[in-house]
Write a structure and sequence with these properties.
92 residues, Hypothetical Cytosolic Protein, Chain: A, two-stranded antiparallel sheet, 24% helix, binds zinc ion
Length: 92
């Protein structure tokens, strides 16, 4: 009952949108190529990655906070059109 130890066998990442931690499998990895945010759907793209929940709300939050340029250590602004195509858009 006591001493619930946190075993980090499955790596957790922080969503750059809502700032909640999730298992990596539940998050979309994003890398930057040129001046574009690209979804790393297969987990094979090299370079620094940012993680976001594949939800329109989290993507919007991340964009509004300019979280991608910060997380990816690049000068913004970044094109996030490809992410929107994967994640979807928030209803107007
Ligand atoms: Zn999130």
């Amino acid at each position: 009952m006591s001493g619930r130890t946190h075993v980090s066998a499955c790596p957790e990442r922080t969503c750059v949108g809502c700032r909640e931690r999730s298992a990596r499998e539940g998050l979309l990895r994003v890398v930057v190529i040129g001046d574009r945010c690209v979804p790393d759907l297969r987990g094979t793209l090299p370079g620094r990655g940012a993680y976001v929940h594949p939800r329109p709300a989290c993507l919007e939050l991340a964009v509004r906070r300019r979280a991608f340029p910060r997380a990816l250590r690049v000068q913004g602004p970044l094109d996030t059109e490809q992410l929107r195509q994967v994640v979807g858009r928030t209803a107007p």
